[in-house]
Write a structure and sequence with these properties.
With 433 residues, the protein is mainly α. It is 48% helix and 9% strand. The strands form three sheets. Strands 5-7-6 form a three-stranded antiparallel sheet, sandwiched between helices. A two-stranded antiparallel sheet has the order 1-2. A hairpin with a 2-residue loop joins β3 and β4. The chain is globular.
Length: 433
């Protein structure tokens, strides 16, 4: 009788919450019931949709899914370990809010804004497109400090404060701080963005448990966990960092750099009141602006629209033994490797892009947290090295492909004593004019 009454009370409370909640019908998760909170329309996969037309979902849709799944995950933990972990309704609401708001600090085109555009603006140079590295000078140190403080996660914290203040949202400051940072119950924050093992809300929910304030999984799920990391790496390789996707990114970064001085794009990063206005429509704004100062930016964007992209020439993976002390490669390195020929390359003709793909823990195997020294006994198919560092080179114009490709091969011979690329650049591509 008591159990039945409890069940009826839970159902009553649940229906009451749903009655006063907004709801959205999602094709994946069904009806998502939203507590009265502010939502933002955010992009998710950057420019991937210009190569893969189906990759069009927005960060708004993504955030709704994370909100729902985060609530489901914390409810699962409460069902199994609620008394032990002291999970209450405020904890559940806090995790759901964190899921909903975790991406509000993103700039245009997913991670391109913070990883490609801002480093080049703040360094005051047209350095190559790669994971940002500057000399250990006073300027370099200052730039690194600014960039460290300008991740989308940090901007999300600023945006949350701005949203609360701007819209006079009545929320207890202590509760707001719980949404933004972890003082206790660290496992709750790992539900949305797990920096300790890399497994977020939608994975292995039914079997996860908390041990020592950390979300853990059954030992027998190790291969499922590995497949999860491997699938994510494959998506990065084949979709998010596809050679043509990166070419479009490189072009739009150049366009934003040309427009930055006239539109004040980068100046918004310290002003949430301006930053929230910055989204993917910046490209349409540039195209619609007739000022002569923006002609170079408009021309680059029109090249993207007309599919006159920077030409991918070739790539190679940095050998494992060389990754530890890899210094980066610049356009100057490629140009200086050119031998005498019909075309004389200039640095502005060439772009070098460095792509890192791993299983979330750099060169380390993320399964080390699960299997420790038993890896040999689990499977001989698991990798011993878990990071690819790919060097790609692009020519800004089709008629430069042959010269850039040859110089790139010369650079490999000079650096490694052999060609490390898998195949030569196709002759058909070299002959394009």
């Amino acid at each position: 009788m008591g159990a039945s009454s409890t069940d009826e009370l839970l159902k009553s409370n649940s229906s009451q919450k749903e009655r006063y909640s907004k709801h959205v019908h999602d094709n994946v998760h069904g009806n998502i019931y939203l507590d009265p909170v502010l939502l933002r329309d955010l992009k998710q996969l950057g420019l991937s949709h210009l190569v893969y037309p189906g990759a069009v979902h927005s960060r708004f849709e993504h955030s709704l899914g994370v909100y729902w799944l985060a609530g489901t995950a914390v409810q699962t933990l409460k069902d199994y370990q609620g008394l032990e972990l002291d999970i209450d309704d405020i904890d559940i609401q806090t995790v759901k809010l964190a899921g909903l708001l975790h991406d509000v600090g993103h700039g245009p085109f997913s991670h391109m804004f913070e990883r490609e555009f801002l480093p080049r603006v703040l360094s005051g140079s047209n350095c190559d497109h790669m994971q940002f590295s500057v000399p250990k000078t006073l300027l370099g140190t200052l730039v690194e400090i600014i960039l460290d403080a300008m991740t989308h996660e940090d901007m999300s914290l600023k945006m949350i404060d701005y949203i609360v203040d701007q819209h006079y949202i009545d929320i207890d400051s202590g509760r707001l701080n719980r949404v933004k940072s972890a003082k206790e119950k660290q496992f709750l924050y790992d539900i949305v963005a797990n920096g300790r093992n890399g497994i977020d809300v939608d994975k292995l929910m039914e079997t996860m448990r908390v041990m020592g304030d950390e979300i853990c999984y059954r030992a027998k799920d190790y291969l499922t966990v590995y497949k999860l990391f491997s699938a994510r790496a494959d998506l990065h390789r084949t979709v998010y960092t596809h050679a043509k996707v990166k070419a479009i990114e490189l072009m739009l970064v150049d366009a934003l750099l040309e427009a930055n001085e006239h539109l004040g794009i980068s100046s918004s990063i310290q002003q949430p009141a301006e930053f929230w206005k910055l989204d993917d429509t910046i490209i349409n704004a540039i195209l619609a602006d007739p000022r002569p100062e923006l002609k170079k930016a408009r021309d680059i964007i029109l090249r993207v629209r007309r599919r006159q992209l920077y030409q991918f020439c070739n790539e190679y993976s940095v050998p494992k033994a060389k990754q530890e002390h890899f210094k980066g490669i610049t356009a100057q390195d490629i140009v200086c490797s050119q031998k005498a020929g019909e075309v004389t390359l200039k640095e502005e003709d060439v772009i070098v892009s460095i792509v890192k793909i791993d299983l979330t823990r750099g060169k380390k195997n993320p399964l080390e947290r699960y299997v420790n020294d038993t890896e040999e006994r689990i499977s001989h198919l698991l990798p011993t090295f878990c990071q690819d560092m790919i060097v790609r080179v692009y020519a800004k114009e089709p008629h430069l492909v042959e010269a850039v490709s040859d110089a790139f091969e010369n650079f490999q011979m000079k650096t490694y004593g052999e060609k490390t690329q898998v195949h030569s650049t196709p002759e058909k591509k070299k002959r394009r004019r």
